[in-house]
Specification:
The chain is an alpha+beta fold and 152 residues long. The chain has one domain: Histidine kinase-like ATPase, C-terminal domain (Heat Shock Protein 90, 2-Layer Sandwich). The chain contains three helices and five strands. A five-stranded antiparallel β-sheet has the order 1-2-3-5-4, covered by helices on one side. The relative contact order is 0.18. InterPro entries: Anti-sigma-factor_SerPK, HATPase_C_sf, HATPase_dom. GO terms for molecular function: ATP binding; protein serine/threonine kinase activity. This is ATP-binding protein. Keywords: ATP-binding, Kinase, Nucleotide-binding, Serine/threonine-protein kinase, Transferase.
Length: 152
């Protein structure tokens, strides 16, 4: 764990307060395991680091982790890497998989059954990005830790 703060108690943009990584084997239990890791990580951020973690942030983090790991489980062979970091006032969720194809959210269609995961992630995340890697890709989403204006 690394820690650095400026005068207002926030980290500088490129330094994280808390960081964990998990290798998930891609079997049927990996989605539930990823959600469990995300909840435990946010508990640690709140309890050990005394960071404000709203119920909304907790729920959205678990939702985003679930959707991203589910997509990886469905479309990419092999292991999944999950990294969770606290940067400033956000939780950053990064999922790596070995598939080189860049995902794209489909056009909104309320009649479509399934395949809404990426739409959901993009709708709830403050920031979303996909980065191609030498092997596979990294998908990163950021969620605000505390509720503020515009958050329910």
């Amino acid at each position: 764990m690394e820690s650095a703060a400026d005068g207002d108690g926030c980290t500088t943009p490129d330094v994280h307060l808390l960081r964990v990584g998990y290798a998930l084997d891609g079997d049927d239990s990996c989605i539930a395991d990823a959600r469990h890791h995300a909840a435990a990580f946010l508990d640690r951020a709140s309890d050990d680091q005394h960071l404000p973690v709203s119920a909304r942030a907790r729920d959205l983090t678990q939702l985003v982790v679930s959707e991203l790991v589910t997509n990886t489980r469905k479309y990419a062979p092999g292991p999944v890497l999950l990294e969770l970091r606290i940067i400033a006032r956000t939780v950053e969720i990064t999922v790596w998989d070995s598939d080189h194809r860049i995902p794209a959210a489909r056009a909104t269609d309320p009649g479509r059954i399934g395949q809404h995961g990426l739409e959901i992630v993009k709708a709830v995340a403050e920031n979303f990005e996909v980065q191609r890697e030498p092997v596979g890709k990294r998908i990163t989403a950021r969620i605000a830790l505390a509720d503020g204006p515009g958050h329910l």
